[in-house]
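Working notes for the structural subgroup meeting. M.R. asked for a predicted model of this chain before we commit to crystallization trials. I am recording the input and output together here so anyone reviewing the notebook later can reproduce the run.

Input as submitted:
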Amino acid sequence: MTTTPAPAADGSSPRTTKFSSPMPMTVAPETSYQATISTSLGDMVAFLHPNKAPQTVNNFVNLARYHYYDGLVFHRVISGFMIQGGCPEGSGRGGPGYRFADELPTPGAYEIGSLAMANAGPNTNGSQFFIVSGASGVGLPPAYSLFGKLISGLDVLEAIQSTPTNRSDRPLTDVVINSVTIAEG
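Returned structure, recorded in token form:
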């Protein structure tokens, strides 16, 4: 199996949306990582937790540095629960071409603004993630890898979760992820 090379840390790698395997470990648990999720409704900034979910943070950081999320939509929005994005098809069925293992939190760890991986069952993480936006998300069982928390942009999260949706929870007007930019320090 071919190993996918790590992207350039400065974000200069070309946009890539299909991979043969997860990227090598490039994040360090003792390093601080922030992700700015720029959307068509404004920016949200999340502090990522490499000390709690190193593989998950590594995956998110590397996909962002490959510009994987640029132009994708939040395809599932449920007010009082969560907003979900990261599917290259916009259908909720797509992914980066690989899956990786869970790094599950303790019960009761989800909060409004938590970033977690969406999955199709145990150890099926890929590129789709969600941001908890209400009580139904806070009450989730610890079945989703928790890897970060918003430190700003709760007003944007509220605007996105308030977007009118169809019966399949898809926004009637696309909410686009313009980019995800990673800063480390």
